[in-house]
Design brief:
mainly alpha
Length: 103
């Protein structure tokens, strides 16, 4: 049994280049969406950190370093959930603006 494997000549098939550019565009679009969502996640995390700093510590229930580590990890995960869900809309607005620049 002999297999005949040939590489298609893209110069003879213009639709192949269109498909490739469409898949490339879709890939770039997905990367841009992810970058915008990641930016929103970092923004929300920094906002939560700033909000936590405004709460005065009473000394009664302060957990020291362990509490700081836990709240930092909690804020990070919460910000990812917010950004990947409906979010604040910052990622969507940023995506719409950046998409105009990419085209």
């Amino acid at each position: 049994m002999k297999l005949n494997l040939t590489i298609p000549d893209t110069s003879l098939n213009p639709s192949f280049k269109t498909d490739t550019s469409q898949t490339e565009r879709a890939k770039n679009d997905a990367e841009l969406k992810k970058a915008c969502a990641d930016f929103e996640s970092v923004f929300v995390q920094k906002m939560l950190e700033g909000m936590r700093k405004t709460i005065p510590k009473s000394g009664l229930l302060d957990g020291g370093m362990q509490e700081e580590i836990y709240t930092s990890m909690f804020d990070e995960e919460l910000s990812k959930l917010v950004a990947n869900g409906k979010g604040m809309g910052l990622g969507d607005m940023l995506y719409q603006q950046m998409q105009k620049q990419v085209k």
